[in-house]
Design brief:
- By secondary structure, the protein is an alpha/beta fold.
- It has a domain of 138 residues: Urease, subunit C, domain 1 (Roll), CATH 2.30.40.10.
- Helix content is 39%, strand content 18%.
- The protein has 18 helices and 18 strands.
- Strands 1, 2, 3, 4, 5, 16, 17 and 18 form an 8-stranded mixed sheet that branches. It has a 3-stranded parallel sheet with strand order 6-7-8. The chain has a 3-stranded parallel sheet with strand order 13-14-15.
- α10 crosses α14 and α11 packs antiparallel against α14.
- The longest helix has 24 residues.
- It starts with 22 loop residues before the first helix and ends with a helix.
Length: 501
């Protein structure tokens, strides 16, 4: 493959410090690293130093301002953009390799902020193969939200960061935190404050990038205790939420984000307090009220004015929300959709395909009326996205792809998520921000990721068409730059061929 290797003397500037939960220190490390890069390259237009790659005639997709910057030059070394200039000045830039991007559109690499690597030890190789599938679709960073093969994920995180493994950058929560006898294998059970302390100790020991909480068995008290203790350690926290807890209570304690829209939707009910009280009252009885059991009451008591107040409050808290619209659409349609001829099934290992059966069987048992209600609920949820965005809530794109989540294919699924976010009412530029700039914002890394500017990360996707005019242009990938390596269209095709079954 035609790749530009990441320079060894720049590898220490990857934003993967061993104590990711110490965010103030992390920002200092990145800032100092960039300063040293510029100093040691003698950054100028004099040509005394060679860049690894110079891209000319590029049309940069400025997602911040929603416009195209034409005839631009990008000079790159390692994984950092060292200059952005007018292509007319190209003769002043000496490089090991040049790439003429005339007629092409260059945008930051995509971030999928909700993925899973899981399925047990027998699926480790199958999960590892998915890294190439992400890259083939221009996904240069993923946020892994918990599974049961954490040691392997940690190894891949190091290998991709060092340029030793084809795949996206990986931020990971490590194991999920949940209550006893959790639904998902590999979860850490917590009940008491001491359990929470031990669990967070273990996550810091493996250098997890954030805390992911799940809600299958966890109590409201344990949930809130996780947030309290995690914030004292400066750890980022996101996840599901037991319906015994109210969203504003968690956000008030410092929770950083929420996965999916169930919990936001609950907080938009005019009867949230009374519904929550009833859920708590019946929690340990023979007739508890689960998430899906509560949705009809929440739907009928949806209050748009309360929603507006909630979104303003979440924005003030710098809260992030991952809508995951595409998986909701996919799973609600499984009952009637035939996926047997999906072209991407060829790139999913049979061991992972086998995990799809659970969702399929569950969907077939669902009544037609329940399916119709689910679609109405999803439409209302989607309509909230542009309102949250306008209020200043940090909307991040996530696909929830991985084993057990049927027919939500890594790489392709984040493209579909971006399109649905645009269909919900976001502009193309806003939809692209959810998958490029807003993920870094969650981690406090907007100073290095999220836009194609001097001193920022060189991860990028080169497109054949303008995505600001037609969001589906994100499907027309000409090349990908990841970890300082350039993958041409033929390279990306070879990555796909290498994992085809």
């Amino acid at each position: 493959m035609d790749k530009i290797q990441l320079k060894k003397d720049n590898s220490r500037f990857h934003p993967y410090p061993k104590t990711q939960y110490l965010f103030p220190q992390m920002k200092r490390i990145v800032a100092i690293g960039l300063t040293m890069i510029l100093f040691h390259t003698g950054f100028s237009q004099s040509g005394h130093k060679k860049f690894a790659l110079v891209i000319t005639n590029a049309s940069i997709v400025d997602i911040t301002n929603g416009k195209i910057l034409s005839n631009r030059l990008l000079a790159i070394s390692g994984d950092t953009i060292l200059a952005v200039d007018d292509t007319k000045k190209a003769t002043a830039y000496k490089a090991e390799k040049y790439l003429d991007a005339k007629g092409k559109y260059v945008m930051p690499g995509l971030w999928d902020m909700h993925v899973h690597f899981r399925g047990g030890d027998s699926t480790i190789a199958a999960n590892k193969a998915l890294l190439r599938l992400f890259l083939a679709y221009g996904v240069t960073t993923v946020r892994e939200c918990g599974g049961d093969i954490t040691p392997s994920v940690m190894t891949w995180r190091k290998q991709t960061a060092r340029g030793q493994l084809d795949g996206p950058r990986i931020f990971t929560s490590g194991p999920k935190l949940d209550g006893p006898n959790a639904v998902w294998a590999g979860s850490i059970p917590v009940v008491t404050p001491a359990d929470v302390t031990a669990a967070l100790d273990s996550l810091q020991k493996i250098h997890a990038d954030f805390v992911k909480i799940y809600d299958s068995r966890i109590s409201g008290d344990a949930y809130l205790e996780i947030i309290r203790q995690a914030k004292r350690r400066h750890m980022k926290v996101t996840g599901h939420m037991p319906f015994t807890v109210e969203l504003k209570e968690a956000a008030g304690l410092g929770m950083d984000g929420s996965e999916h829209l169930y919990y936001v939707f609950k907080a938009c009910s005019s009867k949230e307090d009374s519904i929550t009280d009833e859920i708590r009252r019946r929690e340990h009885t023979d007739h508890p009220i689960g998430l899906f059991g509560a949705l009809p009451a929440l739907f009928s008591t949806f209050d748009s004015s309360k929603a507006d107040r909630l979104f303003k409050y979440l924005a003030e808290k710098h809260f992030s929300i991952t809508p995951t619209l595409f998986i909701s659409k996919t799973l609600s349609g499984i009952k009637g959709d035939d996926h047997s001829n999906d072209s991407l099934l060829a790139y999913i290992d049979p061991k992972i395909q086998a995990t799809y059966r659970g969702r399929v069987n569950g969907a077939r048992r669902q009544s037609d009326s329940a399916t119709r209600f689910t679609k109405k609920y999803q439409a209302l949820c989607a309509s909230l996205v542009p309102k949250m965005y306008a209020a200043g809530v940090n909307i991040v794109a996530g696909s929830d792809c991985g084993a057990f989540n049927s027919y939500v294919y890594p790489g392709s699924s984040i493209h579909e998520e971006i399109k649905l976010l645009a269909a919900s009412g976001l502009t193309p530029a806003q939809a692209l921000r959810t998958a490029t700039a807003n993920g870094p914002k969650f981690f406090g890394l907007a100073g290095f990721f999220g836009s194609l500017q001097q001193g920022k990360c060189s991860d990028m996707v080169i497109l054949e068409r303008n995505p600001l005019e037609d969001i589906s242009a994100i499907d027309r990938i000409d090349a990908v730059l990841s970890h300082g390596r350039l993958y041409s269209k033929s390279d990306l095709d070879a990555l796909l061929a290498s994992i085809r079954h």
